[in-house]
Amino acid sequence: MTTSRRPRADARRNYERLLAEADAAFRGGGVTASLEGIARRAGVAIGTLYGHFPNRRTLVGALLRDRNEQLFQLGDRLIAQQSPDALDTWVRAVTEHAATYGGLAVMLADGLDDEASELHASCLRMADVGEQLVAHARKAGALRLDATGADVTTLTTAAASLHEHLSPDAADRLITLTLAGLAPRHSSERHM
Amino acid sequence: MTTSRRPRADARRNYERLLAEADAAFRGGGVTASLEGIARRAGVAIGTLYGHFPNRRTLVGALLRDRNEQLFQLGDRLIAQQSPDALDTWVRAVTEHAATYGGLAVMLADGLDDEASELHASCLRMADVGEQLVAHARKAGALRLDATGADVTTLTTAAASLHEHLSPDAADRLITLTLAGLAPRHSSERHM
DNA sequence: CGATTAAGCTGAGGCTGCCTCGACAAATCT
DNA sequence: AGATTTGTCGAGGCAGCCTCAGCTTAATCG
Q1: Is residue A125 a contact partner of residue A181, using CB atoms and an 8 Å limit?
Q2: Distance between terminal CA atoms of chain A?
Q3: How far apart are CA A60 and CA A66, in angstroms?
């Protein structure tokens, strides 16, 4: 049996430093920020960065893991509570999430059919939450009959993209309008 | 007074070749396609490309000029005709337009406050068309009272972005939903 | 048809960024 | 301590951006 060794202390330290610097860099310059710059600021050679994260996606994925987990908890809560504006809350939360690093939404959208990364899994799970929220809302008569989970995915992706390139307000407005468009055709007493 | 010379024939030829190659490259690889590759395929040194087009934006702008003109003609026609689905037609046309080169929508959105380029002017004019269409539709009672031209701009930008990163269908769906959301709150006899 | 001259062309070179890989260092284990 | 494995280092190859000093060559003039 492979009685594996304890991981090296310096390795763990470098890993943490890289994550911290990457987070700062991605927040400031978007997901395309220079990896060499990140390594340099982490006080580590470029090869070390690649040792820990074979590619950019892996690095982004590692950074997103915790954040994603929180999002899923919110999703589960919303599904359980069945609040009328659950869908609204969800869409805005995901949009906000996807806007933390510039270019993140595009990166995710581009690589959806990619190799099995944790990013991929997370995307699927997010889609699933959207699907469930739509199903509930539709049963409650709050949505038009042809509304789908894909509509929610589309909307959040679009809003996240706008969040980066136009203003947060524009993204918010688009969400409001599209959700209004998802309402049943012959009006009901939805808010606003 | 400066009796200026006739422009050199080779210069004009190179200009045309560069445009042709750039169009092909941008269609295939998006607006970030390699400029050196374009120059090479045009049978011209990289310096020549930069001689004609000091930066990427200029090159894209030159390619878009004709296309934009056509779009504006459509816009004028739509405004004149006052057809009920003018807004719908317009949004879809602009979206289609912005999707010819991958990344175009982002490029335009990023550089709206940039130096005075013809791109900038075109964007303003497009916004203006949207504004007018909204005004007409609202007077006709086809739109909710708080609808603005900015909403149209937002929508087209978002749809164009989706067109690239997800599917054309997704973009189309978003347009449909958002336009539905722009309808008056207490239903009328809109199509679909 | 030269000669003149300005417009235009060229491509090496400096820079940044991506990523790999063989040589090296050091932490762990015995 | 010595052996072993794990991790680090950074030069180097590649591609793309952009500039600029020197060179061509097309247009013009006599």
Answers
A1: no
A2: 65
A3: 11
CA of residue B1 to C1' of nucleotide C3, angstroms: 24
- Give the pLDDT confidence of B101-158 residue by residue, as tens digits: 999 988 887 776 566 577 888 889 999 999 999 999 999 999 999 999 999 999 999 9
B9: in domain: yes
Evaluate whether A116 touches A60 at the Cβ level (below 8 Å): no
What is the Cα–Cα distance from A173 to A95, expressed in whole angstroms?
12
Q: B27: domain range?
A: 1-54
Cα dihedral A139, A145, A150, A151 in deg (nearest 10)? -110
Q: Are residues A71 and A50 in the same domain?
A: no
Give A 142-161 residues with CB within 8 A of chain B: 150-151, 154-155, 157-159, 161
- What would the pLDDT profile of A80-112 be if each residue is shown by its tens digit? 998 999 999 999 999 999 999 999 988 887 776
For tokens 């991605």, what's the residue?
A26
Q: Which residues contact A189 (CB under 8 A, 6 or more apart)?
A: none
Domain co-membership, A93 together with A77: yes
Which phi and psi angles does A146 have, rounded to 5°?
Answer: -95, 10
Which CATH number fits the domain that encloses residue A75? 1.10.357.10
Residues A18 and A68 in one domain: no
Q: CA of B3, closest CA in chain A: separation in Å?
A: 46
* A125 CB-side CA count, 13 A: 16
Query: What is the token pair recorded at B97?
Result: 């337009």
